[in-house]
Design brief:
The protein is α+β, with helices and mostly antiparallel strands. It contains four helices and eight strands; from the N terminus they run H-H-E-E-E-E-E-E-E-E-H-H. The protein is globular, with a radius of gyration of 21 Å. It starts with 8 loop residues before the first helix and ends in a 21-residue tail after the last helix.
Amino acid sequence: MNARKPISALALALAVSLFLSACAPTVAMLPARDAVNPKCADVIVRLPATLLGQSMRTTDAQATGAWGDGPSITLRCGVEPPGPTVTLCYAVKGIDWLEDSSRKPIYTFTTYGRNPAVQVTIDATPVQGQTTLVLDRLAVAVRMIAQRSRCININDLPTTTGR
């Protein structure tokens, strides 16, 4: 006689959820203009598997990366390097990032002084204000593109004395 144990609904639900999470859909992204630049390949192979506990996702565009649901963090290498600007600039682990906060809580950071440039878009809601930590974790990869110029701030400017 062949005895079978019934599969519980909980076990079945667990198996289905594990299967579906392993098959997260590919993230549709647009490649940057200079995505074929060999320097971007150096960046992409060094991207972390997780960022703030969010797993890296598969993307459908060259020189891109994505993490988390939504996804909450995306990266594109090969974007046009920004020229001189008055945009707010942050230095994180020796990498200068220009911040675009015009779509809060979505923030876009673009490297300054690197060619090609790297652009990171972060939905600040799921990462709970830890955007600097995201940029910190990406530094190892982004550092593969040499820094050619730096952001300056008011303290870097020469002072003049009036008479």
